[in-house]
Amino acid sequence: MPPTTAMSVTFNSGLVLIGFMGAGKSTVGEALHRHTGWPLVDLDGLIVQRQGLTIPEIFSKQGEEAFRRYETEALQSLVAKGPYILATGGGIVGRAENWPLMRKLGRLIYLRAEWATLKSRLAGCTGRPLAASEGSRRGLRDLLEQRRPLYEQADLIVDTDNRGVDEVVREILERIKEAE
Ligand code: S3P
Questions:
Q1: Hey, whose CA ends up nearest to atom 15 of ligand 1?
Q2: % of the chain with per-residue pLDDT over 70
């Protein structure tokens, strides 16, 4: 299990976006990048670049375990650099060793959304192996429930239901400022 207490990090050390598939991590990441000027790193994108394979190809040719290993390795490759705006993949919270790495990379922000919101955002999606088929989609709600307590260990929880990107970003920036 990941640690339950947050390591102290300065707010200038980067922002790490976590949350389920469809939570808006990449979109919010883009906007935060524009506001802060910090480089945006999309962890899935970095994995694709490092492996020379798409995410569905990694899952189908090498399996999920290999993908999870690549996620940890990609995180390790970022530590001691930055600060970044880092958009992670939804499953990053599942491996205990990812937590100290993420905490080193900055303040963890959970982009929270209700199941109904996520479901509609994921409808028709093909690029996510865990959500691509009707069969796999059925297990997604359980997966969300399993991961929820992990996401909730973030430093900041921000609701995204029925809210536009600008509103979400404004809240993140205000709350970070307040806590500084
Ligand atoms: C996954 C989420 C995906 C991607 C991979 C696995 C997950 O990223 O990392 O398909 O296990 O939740 P997004 O959350 O950006 O869709």
A1: 89
A2: 90
